[in-house]
Amino acid sequence: MRTKNVWVVAVAITLFYCTFAHAMTVHQFYALAQKQKSINAFGATVQSVIETGYWTSPLWRNTYNGAGIKADAQWRKTKSYVEFVSPESKDGIYFKKVSYFKKYETPVVFLVDYAQKIKRDYPQCAADNFFGYFAGLYKGRLGKWATDHKYFEKLVRKAFELEAILLYPGHLKRSFEYAKDKKYLEQWQIEIIEEVIK
Q1: CA pair distance 198, 196, nearest whole angstrom
Q2: What are the sequence ranges of the domains in the chain?
Q3: Which of 11, 28, 100, 139 is 20 to 30 A away from residue 40, measured at CA?
Q4: DSSP labels for 115-145?
Q5: pLDDT tens, residue by residue, 63-108
Q6: What is the 3-state secondary structure (H, E, C) of 82-113?
Q7: Is 3.40.190.290 the CATH classification of the domain at 22-197?
């Protein structure tokens, strides 16, 4: 009987570690993101939290893809990718779609490619201000980053949640004023942030 209990505990521990083997903490991801100078580390961390559910999603665990970056035909010719069902949104309606996603060997390799994508396809993402960074995700060379019609609001709400973990109190309000002064934000984005601040 004791051998059976030990075996059950061993299996449970193994399953636990297999499930969370690739999970990261907010601090770990933020530290890695800070090494990529062309991105806003806090903005990238917030976005990755949204995209991966705090780095526990199947896509992250199987590919280290921390931002739902899709694999185009050129990537698929020579590099690793996976076919995966992901939630999409069109005209305010959510649905599931099968897409190809890039597969990375490590979180660092992901962040290097992510930073290159931001620089190439989303050059208006402000590296000096995460609200401006979020706004830049809507001004991409090929369109906005995500189809989710609530993506900006989700980013803003998550930023306020993570402020206490990664930043100092009041940082978000000062960043908001800075983003308005720099004209990084459109009116609808300002209204969302003001609503969240209330």
Answers
A1: 6
A2: 22-197
A3: 100
A4: HHHHHHH-TTS-TT-HHHHHHHTTSBTTB-S
A5: 999 999 999 999 999 999 999 888 777 877 887 888 999 999 999 9
A6: EEEEEEEEECCEEEEEEEEEECCCCHHHHHHH
A7: no
